Amino acid sequence: MTSGTSRGGLAILAWLQLVRLPGVITAAADSLSGYVLLNPGWQLHDWDRLIPLAAVSMILYAAGMALNDVADHAVDQAERPGRPIPSGRVRRSHAALFAAIGLVVGPGILYWNREIASVIAMALAACVVAYNLWLKHTSLGPLAMGTCRGLNFFMGLAYSPLCGVELPLAFGLFVVGITMISRSEVAGGSIREIVPGLIVEMAALASLGALALMPGSRPADWDPRHFQAILGISILAAVAIAQLAVGWRAIRSPEPKTIQKLVKTGVLSLVWIHVGLITAVLGPPAALPFVALWVVAFLIARRLYAT
C-alpha cells in the first residue's frame, strides 16, 4: 500500500512538473484580470463566467506545456534529462494525448456556453500549436509566445463591448521579453538575449502604466490623482525594479541558474502586472484575489519549476 501510494504521488508530481503548475495559475490570472478590468460591477453571480474562463486558460496553458515537452523531446534528452518525458516518468504518447485533448476541450468549454470569447480561445489554441510545433526555435518564437499570452488576456476583455487590443498587446510584449531571455537559460554564457529582453520588458511596463491612466481604461468618476492610481503605477514600477535587479545579476553572471531565476521572476511577475492594472483602475480591494493567486503560484514555484 505504501509503495503504491508513493508511486502514485510521484506520478502526480511528474505531471504537475510537466504542465508547469505555477505558470498554470498565472494563466488563470490573465483572463480573469481582463474580465474584471472592464466589468467593474462584477458580482458573485458572474462566477458562471469566471470559472469557465479561468478553467479554459489553465487547460490551454497546461496543454501547451505538455505539447512543448512532446515537441522538444530530443532536445530535452540531451539538455534536460531530468524532465518528466526524457526521464521516463511521463510517457511521450500520454503527454501528446493530454495536449490534444486540452487544446480541444479548452475552447469547447466557452463554445458550449455560447460565449464570444470562444473564438479567441480557438485562436489561442491554434497559436499554441503553431508556437510549439513550428515557430519556437525561429526568430518569430518570442512574438508567438507573446501572442499566446496576449490572447489569453484578451479572452477575458472580450466580455465587454469596451474591449480593445492595446492592453493585451502591451501585456504580450512583456512576455516577448521573457521569452527572449529564456532562450539562453539552458546554455548561459551570453547576455545577447538578456539585455534586449529586459529592454522589451521595460517598454511593455511603461506602455501598460500609460494605458492604465488613459480615460478609456477607467470608470467615468476616476481621477488620476486618486491614491489607487499612485499605488497601481507603483506596483508596476516595483515589477520593473525587481526584473532589473534580477536581470543585473544575470548580466554580471550569465549562468543558467541566474538566467532561469530571471525568467522565473518574469513569469511570476505577470500576476503582479494584473494587480497593478486592477489597483490603478478599480482600487486595491478588487486586486486582492490576484495577490492571493500570486501567493499560491509563488509557494508552488518553490517546489516545482515554472519555466
What does this structure look like?
Helix content is 75%, strand content 0%. The protein has 307 residues and is mainly α. Helix 2 (21-38) runs antiparallel to helix 3 (47-71). The mean pLDDT is 91.
Describe, in short, the structure shown.
By secondary structure, this protein is mainly α. Helices cover 75% and strands 0% of the residues. It has helices at 2-18, 21-38, 47-71, 73-79, 92-112, 117-135, 141-157, 166-182, 194-212, 227-252, 256-282, 284-301.
Oligomeric grouping of the chains: single chain
Helical content (DSSP H or I, runs of 4+): over 70%
Major beta sheet summary: none
Number of strands: 0
What is the strand and helix layout of this fold?
Elements: H1 2-18, H2 21-38, H3 47-71, H4 73-79, H5 92-112, H6 117-135, H7 141-157, H8 166-182, H9 194-212, H10 227-252, H11 256-282, H12 284-301
Which keywords apply here?
mainly alpha, 75% helix, globular
